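Following up on my earlier thread - several people asked me to post the actual chain instead of describing it. Fair enough. Here it is, all 344 residues.
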Amino acid sequence: MKFLDLCKVYIRSGAGGGGCVSFRREKYIEYGGPDGGDGGTGGSVWAEAVDGLNTLIDFRYQQHFFAKNGQPGMGRQRTGKDGDDILLRVPVGTEILDEDQETVIADLTEVGQRVELARGGNGGFGNLHFKSSTNQAPRRSNPGQEGVERTLWLRLKLIADVGLLGLPNAGKSTFLAATSNARPKIADYPFTTLHPNLGVVGVDNTEFVVADIPGLIEGASEGRGLGDLFLGHIERCAVLLHLVDGTSETLDEDYQTIVQELAAYGAGLAEKPRVTVLNKIDALDDEQRKTACKILKDVSKGPVMMMSGVAREGVTEVLRALRAQIDDDRLRHRPAEEDAPWHP
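Reply from S.P.:
Thanks for posting it. Predicted structure:
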């Protein structure tokens, strides 16, 4: 399945049906009076967050969504049929933006959340509605209300608890593959990750979701490399995991590059809790580990953990450090063995 996190859609709600001008015509009834019915209401356009989707690829092949118009009223006091609504099913975490791509109309962060994007037009009144003691034979009716036509943008921001940060080939995909059932592409050249990946990680009977995004390089905020288009997927994360390649000869510059790109992007990413990890320590001896760790501590001015995703050294400690930064209400607790239901 291809990954798509930004798309443009065109929607239009249905117009209301017009009212009817009609009079009762029956044998032996001289003054039947008005019996024109009202028009039906036009269909509305809704958006709903559903489970099981993690991309907007469906909206690449269909961008236009037009609801049905309401039917006009008819004689014998018959009201026109209402137009059918249209429902846009989007992944959890989808933002709906106006045409300017800045005004947020809705942010669907939970399964089942619904929002009305365009309301259908009301049906017009038939001449029966205008009957009164002083106007017993009205010959007027109202037209139906026009529908609403809009151009919207859908932007997906994945719902994850932990976001992976680092330069290309820092070992982010290797860490995700070593700790979850996700199978991202892993290779010995930069930019092997071209779109975000999600993995469910478990430690100490709890689970949380980790998001791996393409690597950042210096100038990503200006469009270099893959740019910072994917940083929006970690805006909702509770904590960021910053991986630094321990085999690099410019550890301090590598760390500062990521920090500067976060600050340039904004959206509060630079202020989020961050766990700094020296990765690929399996390729370093004890003396090199101490030197690299000291350099990273000096530039980050905080604690630094050491890990090897390939050798799985220090992975559990890193997961526990991440778990400690995540709110309890975001963790998914596994049932204890004694509480699990019996089954053959």
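The longest strand covers residues 149-156. That should answer part of your original question.
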